[in-house]
Amino acid sequence: MGAYQVASTEFQEIADSVKNPKAFEPIYNRHFQSIYTYMRNSVRDPELAADLCADVFYSALLNIRKFKITPGGIRPWLFKIAVNILRMHFRKNKSVLFIPLADFQIQELISVETSIEIADLRKYLAGELSKLNSDEQELIQLRFVAECSYREIGIIYEISEAAAKMRISRIIDKLKKIIPQNLKS
């Protein structure tokens, strides 16, 4: 089955969901894990993540009529809802986003040769990530944790794919500049 067929199937599921909420189930099943993982990695509490994830899909179903068909399908729209729900959660609870990065993601994000252990770099980077503004943190979270493509991020933020790539590149450059010289080889 080609990408177009999958997309047209999804678009039919969306159209059917407008008339019958039960038709939303395949969309939910297809995208639940990625949205839940994004939420789980953002709040570090499985029960809260499940509640927030439920809010995402409930909101999506309530607003399915507002979905505008894009080449990216419904996934970026679901992530846009997830980003907004997380923003409301963090604002309401005066808490902060947690950005869990795997070792390879840290190396990709920083991309410097270093003589220190990855555990030390992880601690340092966590501190520096917390200094980024909330939009920058969201972009890093979407790109490196949720593994959204630049195209999907562009759709989420209503900017071009090139603009999404540029924003993330600037954040990475910013992080590279703030790494102290003693951490670099």
Kindly describe this structure.
The protein has helices spanning 3-19, 25-43, 46-62, 75-93, 103-110, 118-130, 134-145, 150-157, 161-178. Helix 2 (25-43) packs parallel to helix 4 (75-93) and helix 4 packs across helix 8 (150-157). The chain is globular and about 55 Å long. The chain has two domains: 3-93, Rna Polymerase Sigma Factor, Chain: A, CATH 1.10.1740; 103-183, Up-down Bundle (Butyryl-CoA Dehydrogenase, subunit A, domain 3). Helix content is 71%, strand content 0%. It is built from nine helices and no strands. With 185 residues, the protein is an all-alpha fold.
| Average pLDDT taken over every residue | 80
Spell the H/E element sequence: HHHHHHHHH
**Total helical elements:** 9
What is the CATH architecture assignment of the largest domain?
Orthogonal Bundle
Structural class: mainly alpha
Low-confidence stretches: 1-6
CATH superfamily of the largest domain: RNA polymerase sigma factor, region 2, helix turn helix motif
Query: In what range is the share of β-strand residues?
Result: under 5%
